[in-house]
Specification:
alpha/beta; seven-stranded mixed sheet; two-stranded parallel sheet; 13 helices; 11 strands; 42% helix
């Protein structure tokens, strides 16, 4: 594929991604910069939002119009690229495939926990099976097939957001209950989570078979691309537990996941999860780590020690910055293995930034 309608330089971007994943220096940092644009001459209004909340997430025609509208109004600079996805309301997830009730809201959705036994070790998790004839599994397959058809020559179809280590268990058990479980029955929780991770691998495999040819590899809810099986691993539940609990209970599942995938970045969401970075750095097949301090916290450069620790370990680093902070970042960090995501106010501003980033980038080892 020579390029995409909304990303003419896609072949160059792919080459840069391949180098980045191999921790090779290609002359600058990886840069995902977007901005509003009118370059496609499309000044139409966004599609009319359906009256029924459910249709906002499930109506394929509306989702198609919304994706097309959004992509046609964005400039994708350097390694930023258009992704076809239906949003993330929680119905196309591992928990939903296991039978969790899904509540769809106007802006998001959530799953209701259904494991309500008093002691988790009394629960036989082997009874939990993916419902391959269920409504949500069928919708998930349908939306992926649809996204592939609509992406041809225009965008990259997403493998969506299925769930994650610890987080799927928290969704079906309830976070408060799971906090008690990991204290009272840590071995059972560890084994339960590994059982779920093996199911997660089956889910990913089914999705990848549908999307990988059109995607020329894969992307997911995290806006990076890789030439093989890629996903952003995470465990937001781990914000509430100690590093020892994280290592003893959840690292085995994360290692299963990284051993299966070809390319993995770990989404460290919130300062409470920073305590787990040391354990993550020990995972041999984890190539990259994102540092996201969280709402109300200082930006990533405030936590320079942890950013440098990741870089000195030889792993790639992804951070999100305001455009005005990027020059400082490239003075303090090596451009090798660094990925920066940012949003500019205009395409003109983005083009100036791109030229400056090429000048500011330095390979510091």
């Amino acid at each position: 594929m020579p390029g995409l309608l909304y990303k003419k330089d896609w072949d160059t971007a792919k080459d840069n991604y391949k180098a980045w994943w191999e921790h090779e220096y290609f002359g600058r940092c990886l840069l995902l910069v977007t901005a509003p644009t009118n370059q496609y001459g499309n000044r139409t209004s966004p599609p009319v939002v359906p009256d029924k909340v459910e249709d906002r997430w499930l109506d394929l025609e509306y989702l198609t119009q919304l994706n097309e509208y959004n992509m046609s109004h964005v400039f994708y600079g350097c390694e930023a690229f258009p992704i076809w996805n239906p949003g993330y309301p929680g119905c196309d997830t591992h928990a939903a495939y296991l039978g969790a009730e899904i509540v769809l809201g106007e802006d998001t959705g959530w799953q209701k926990p259904f494991i309500d036994c008093e002691i988790i070790s009394d629960y036989d998790y082997h009874q939990l099976k993916i419902d391959y004839q269920g409504r949500w599994w069928e919708f998930g397959q349908q939306i992926r097939l649809h996204s592939v058809r609509k992406s041809q020559g225009r965008s990259i179809p997403s493998n969506m957001a299925f769930g994650a280590c610890g987080d799927t268990l928290a969704a079906i058990r309830g976070s408060e209950n799971l906090l008690f479980d990991i204290v009272e029955c840590p071995d059972h929780v560890r084994d339960f989570d590994q059982y779920l991770m093996k199911q997660w691998i089956d889910i990913y495999e089914a999705s990848y078979k549908i999307t990988h040819t059109c995607a020329q590899g894969s992307t997911c809810w995290f806006a990076l691309w890789a030439p093989g099986k890629f996903y952003a691993a995470q465990n937001d539940f781990a914000y509430m537990i100690s590093p020892k609990m994280f290592i003893d209970i959840f690292i085995p599942s994360i290692e299963l996941q990284t051993n299966y995938l070809d390319y993995t970045i770990y989404h460290v969401d919130g300062t409470g999860n920073f305590a787990h970075v040391d354990a993550l750095l020990e995972l041999p097949k984890l190539q990259a780590i994102q540092i996201l301090p969280g709402t109300g916290k200082p930006g990533p450069l405030y936590y320079l020690d942890i950013l440098r620790k990741i870089q000195s370990s030889g792993k790639n680093l992804h951070i999100t910055l305001e455009p005005n902070d990027i020059e400082t970042a490239l003075e303090l960090l090596s451009a090798r293995g660094l990925s920066i995501e940012t949003v500019c106010s205009s395409e003109e501003e983005a083009q100036v930034l791109i030229k400056n980033v090429e000048r500011w980038s330095v390979d510091r080892g």
